[in-house]
Amino acid sequence: MRIFDPHIHMTSRTTDDYERMAAAGVRAVVEPAFWLGQPRTGPESFADYFDSLIGWEPFRAGQFGVRHHATIALNPKEANDPRCRPVLDLLPRWLDKDGVVAVGEIGYDSMTPAEDEAFAAQLALAVAHDLPALVHSPHRDKARGVQRSLAVVAESGIDPGRVVIDHLNEVTVKLVRDTGVWLGFSIYPDTKMSPPRMVELLRAYGTERMLVNSAADWGRSDPLLTRATGEAMLAAGFTDDDVDRVLWRNPVEFYGQSGRLELTDLDVTAVDPTTGNSILRGGE
Amino acid sequence: MEPERLRAALDGVPGPEWLDEALRRVAAEPTTIARHFAAAGRHCGRAELPDPPGWTADEAARVLLLTALPAGHADAATALYRHGDAAEKQAVLRALPLLPVGAAGVPLLHDALRTNDTRLVAAALGPYAGHLDQAAWRQGVLKCVFMGVPLAAVADLDERADGELATMLAGLAAERAAAGRPMPADATDLLDRLASTDQLSPTEA
Known about the structure:
The complex is a heterodimer of chains A (about 280) and B (about 200).
Chain A: E1 3-5, H1 15-24, E2 26-32, H2 43-54, H3 56-62, E3 67-72, H4 87-95, E4 100-107, H5 113-128, E5 133-136, H6 142-156, E6 163-165, H7 173-176, E7 182-186, H8 195-205, E8 210-213, H9 225-235, H10 240-256
Parallel strand pairs in A: 1-2, 2-3, 3-4, 4-5, 5-6, 6-7, 7-8
Chain B: H1 3-9, H2 16-28, H3 33-44, H4 57-67, H5 73-82, H6 86-95, H7 106-114, H8 118-124, H9 134-147, H10 157-160, H11 163-179, H12 185-196
């Protein structure tokens, strides 16, 4: 089973996770820029964070044979802090980089006017840089947040086929299914979505434009739940081809629209025997 | 390494027209280098060049873009390094010996040698490392051994290796031996050469 996790915050994960992911078949990931738990207080913290997403983290992933890409944005929660707003002016620098395959995570947290403004401005950046957009859907008041996100997407003029709305569930999937936008589902140990529930949604809505991710981060989460979902699909009678479509070809098609996915030579082991030990303890 | 040789090597890669146009634009409008520099790999590819050995297409293209600047090479190299992803940083480091920057790029070498990215550490110890003071250079060489970076990456290794480096390598070898872990063969060979040329004092041997 080859797996592309289209949404995982590897910065918050250990090398044990990379090893287990690689052993489970995860060969490529996309790491969206998001909130780090601790609020940031100015644009320079974001600059260092964005740099790590195109510098150190891809190197770290490469030690384990995992290809790493990123999405870059000012996240909705911190868009509300006026000290962080200047991040919007810095973004174009990263949106030109090879490893950046979308603008994201953008969207809503509390649906404030400041979030409206940052969301629209960053959809315009996606269009200007010819990049797809990753839209986070809010945890609170989710259904109305998804409807409002769809309206903002429509108003922006971006091709809906270049947008994914993430963290959907049984209620919100209905709102998005027929809009032409891609559908993202985050499989969590006990909240957003579980493997058995995901299998039911795939039965009901099919596999087209469906993206399954672990969204693993610094909270209680599990980077192997993509694999668990693939196994649950097989146990429920889906074919190997269905699983490959959902866990590999769909994310490759979606992020491939950036023209920047780099998946060549993935079968070759990325751990150079002469240098591959450097990660183990900051150089062993 | 002459820029002409890199340019000739890039004739066979994808996007030679893109590169020609990018070089013209950078020569005429130096501020356009940032976007061209970021996009070079997408247009020229990242394949290893048959000649010169040890160069990839994106790296060579980026080095050429820097050499195409009419002036201000030191400031441009510094900005592109500071704002670059790992591949861009590596290209800046490899461009330094080809640019009229004197010792102005030395802070970039120090930055690269502080990272744990083996590609950047190796690139920092190329020919431009002649500008590094001996203490920083020795630390860089020892870091290569520590990280498993082949010492072939280090320019002028035998000319510059001294008794102090031998002492540091011998210390690492002793720690590795005590831990039952091997030293890289190229480091052991270097230590042997230093001992045989008598640069190692008797007490250190």
